[in-house]
Amino acid sequence: MAFETILTEAKDGIGVITFNRPKALNALNAQMIGEMGRALDAFEADDNVHVIVLTGSEKAFAAGADIKEMADKSFNDAYMGDFISGPWDRIDSCHKPVIAAVSGFALGGGCEMAMMCDLIIASDTAKFGQPEITLGIVPGIGGTQRLTRAVGKAKAMDMVLTGRMMGAEEAERSGLVARVVPADQLMDEVMTMAATMATFSRSTMKMAKESVRRAFETTLSEGVRYERRLFHACFATYDQKEGMKAFIEKRKPKFENR
Ligand code: CAA
C-alpha cells in the first residue's frame, strides 16, 4: 500500500506505523489520519500481524491536529462534517494490541492518539500536553476524558487549563506512560516488548485487552463479572490447554490462536 504521510512495515508479527510529516512535526492532517486508518485496517486484517506499534520521529510523535488545516473551519463545517471522528478514532476500535512509542512532542491530538493506544512507552525526551486552550479550543479526540482517567483530575485540570507540557518522568510517575527509556533505545525496547507479546495467543490477548479496557467503561462489579466470563471462556480454547500443558511439561507453549 502506497502512503505519502506515513511509513509502514510488517515484520515478525509486528506492524509498525510511523507518522512522517517531519516539516510539520507530524501535525495530524486529514490525509495522514486517513492513511493511518487504512494502515490499521490492513494490519488488523493481516493474520501475520499480532501487535501494532504507532510512532513518530525523535523530535515529535505528533504536535497535534494540523492547525493550518483547521484554522478557517466554521462551526457548521466542524459540526455537520463531524470533525475529528471516523479514522481519527480508529485506534480505539483495534482488536490487536497497539503500543505508542513516543519521542519528543505528543501534544493535543498527538497526546490523544497516544492515549488511545493500549500503552505508551516514552523516550526520556517525550513531552505530553493538551495545549488546545492556548488556541481558543478544547481537546477534541478524548483528551479531557482519557487524560483524566490516566492521571486523575488534579493533573488533568493542570494540563488542560494551563496548556503546560509534562515531561516523560512526570508522565510515568502520573500513570500516563508504562515505561521511560533513553531516546536512542526507544524502538529497540518497544520492538522487544512487541516481540514478546507476538508470541502469545492472539485470541487470549484480545480478551485480555478487552477486559482491561472494560475497566474504563463500567462499574467494578460489572467489570469483574465480564473478566470472569472471559476467564471461563479461556477454558474452551486450545491455547489454554497448550499453555498449561507446556508449563507442566517444562517447555515453551506453541499457541495456535484457537
Ligand atoms: N499544526 C500545524 N503545523 C504545526 C503544528 C500543528 N499542530 N505544530 C507544529 N507545526 C509546524 C510549525 O508551524 C512549523 O512550520 P513552519 O516551519 O512552516 O513554520 C513547524 O511545524 C515547526 O514548528 P515550530 O517552528 O513551531 O517548532 P518549535 O520547535 O519551535 O516548537 C512546538 C515546537 C512547541 C511543538 C510548536 O510547534 C507548537 O506549539 N505546536 C503546536 C502545538 C499545539 O498547539 N497542538 C495542538 C493542536 S490542536 C489539537 O490537536 C486539537 C485536538 O484535540 C484534535
From TrEMBL:
Tell me the Gene3D superfamilies matching this sequence.
2-enoyl-CoA Hydratase, Chain A, domain 1, Lyase 2-enoyl-coa Hydratase, Chain A, domain 2
**Domain of life, source organism:** Bacteria
Key word Secreted present in the record?
A: no
Q: Which PROSITE patterns does UniProt cross-reference here?
A: ENOYL_COA_HYDRATASE
| Cited SUPFAM superfamilies | ClpP/crotonase
Task: Give me the reactions it catalyses.
Answer: a 4-saturated-(3S)-3-hydroxyacyl-CoA = a (3E)-enoyl-CoA + H2O; a (3S)-3-hydroxyacyl-CoA = a (2E)-enoyl-CoA + H2O
Q: Name one GO molecular function term.
A: enoyl-CoA hydratase activity
Which Enzyme Commission numbers does its entry carry?
Answer: 4.2.1.17
Top EC category: lyase
Q: Which family does it belong to?
A: Belongs to the enoyl-CoA hydratase/isomerase family.
What is the documented function of this protein?
Could possibly oxidize fatty acids using specific components.
Protein's name according to its UniProt entry:
enoyl-CoA hydratase
Protein source organism: Magnetovibrio blakemorei
State the taxonomy lineage: Bacteria, Pseudomonadati, Pseudomonadota, Alphaproteobacteria, Rhodospirillales
